[in-house]
Fold this protein.
Amino acid sequence: MNTAQDTLERVLLRHGRQAHSLLQILRELQSALGWLSRATLSQVAAALDLTLAQVQGVAEFYRFLHTRPLGSCRVLFSDNVTDRMLGSEALLADLCQRLGVMPGEMHKDGLVSVDKTSCTGLCDQGPALLINHHHVLTRLDSERVAQLAELILARVPPAEWPAHWFAVQDNIRRSEMLLGEPLAPGLALAAALERGAEATLGEIKRSKLRGRGGAGFATALKWGLCREAAGAQRFVVCNADEGEPGTFKDRVLLSRFADAVFEGMTVAAHVIGAQRGFLYLRGEYRYLLEALEAVLQRRRAARLLGDAILGCSGFDFDIDIHIGAGAYVCGEESALIESLEGKRGTPRIRPPFPVQQGYLGFPTVVNNVETFCAASQIALHGGAWWSEMGTAQSSGTKIHSVSGDCERPGLYEYPFGTTVERILQDCGALDAQAVQLGGPSGVCLSRSDFGRRIAFEDLPTAGAFMVFNASRDMFEVARAFSHFFAHESCGFCTPCRVGTELLARRMDKLAAGRGSGADIEVLFELDRLLHSASHCGLGASAANPLRDTIARFRPAYEQRLKWLHFEPAFDLDAELSIARRMTRRDDAGAHLENEA
């Protein structure tokens, strides 16, 4: 039996030859074999009783899975707008020149490949890059890039590179309830067990805790619906796939407060009656895996996980870590569940909702990292304590990932109701012209908005807080975000698959100085189509940066218009007709194919 076959058998055995473990199987095989050949995919398909098309469809969906050979050293530069502001594009070009390789291509001897990837969650210490998806390098500069090229060409393994290159700082600048002193493991769980499941749910309800992922759904309502749903099993899932560019709070919570995250998940399991949980860890945070596994092992040893938790007979619950493979859309809870089940991360049609039919068809609670941290605090201190902070509709605190043009990037925790201006002052952003709040899918604010407050009733946010000073071109910021959405569309629905691409192309046309007033009208029309006809929130929010920057920074667009009237060579009616046809569906509900 050859080595590759041995590896395949070991990986399949470790995952019990379960089809719903397909993504983890492929990820581990690639780590061992370097890439996923058609022969390997065929063997996996046969072993899991799947078709080759199913397995290959998954392998080609995720950005970090490769169906063609790449360099043995794979370098991925973070391509968020804040990394670009710090010079990442010039550094990438410099590294490619030193290595003698083109971006996206493999070195002629298979040594290295260099490319870009979406935000790596290191915006507070960029420019940053990933090495083989397992290592992160922060604070890149020209000197470090030159040394990096020498080490790669000398075939020195990353384990022997300077240790300080891999240093990732927490950068906690302001703390309140969540970022202060870590809770002692087990305290919150013991309080919940003493109180009882129903009373603990009552405390969550009394706290008025809302999900910290941006949508703000009431946590107690979600847990209560799952608790009441019919099902032989229930699951708790922590969404740690913070792929929204500009967000990095989960990175720090998982690094320093992992016990609070797992404790919150265990409290939720006690409330809803779950026996199994998953932490869905984004692929860019693979380097956190070993430390997180060590925390889980300590908790098992302390009887905080496993059978009869804290001696409570019948309370059996454990947590597995599932690693993503680079797909922004998997931050949406139903797409995340599809990925957990080993499939492409395509958002589901709802209803039914995950609390009714989630993982493997069973009732499932999905909350994000910050929400579970808050739940552990509430389980210990009570709902009234939590609700004393914040506003009437937004209780407690919110963690903000601050990056961009400021003196002190990092994490800032404030009570809800804090103004944008206060955060700008604290982080040293003295010349801000704009703030992108909540990432590209959020809202772009100008100076006239800085007096507004962070709260669900005014400015809801998932946590990203990107600052742009007066020197920044807000058109280019919006253009970068349009390319991000076009790249991250899952391709399931035509309005998003095609509409995001048309949006990016139109922005490129304006950037090239070939735009007209008609292009602005097309952009508005695409915004309306994407917002009204997309299958999920990715497409619906893809034009948000465009809409906000045109409204608040219109001169940045107008200076790129070569002419102000309709260009005869451009058939606006024909193009919009195509875009409209993309949104129609036949009687069976299938989307039309791209006719553009």
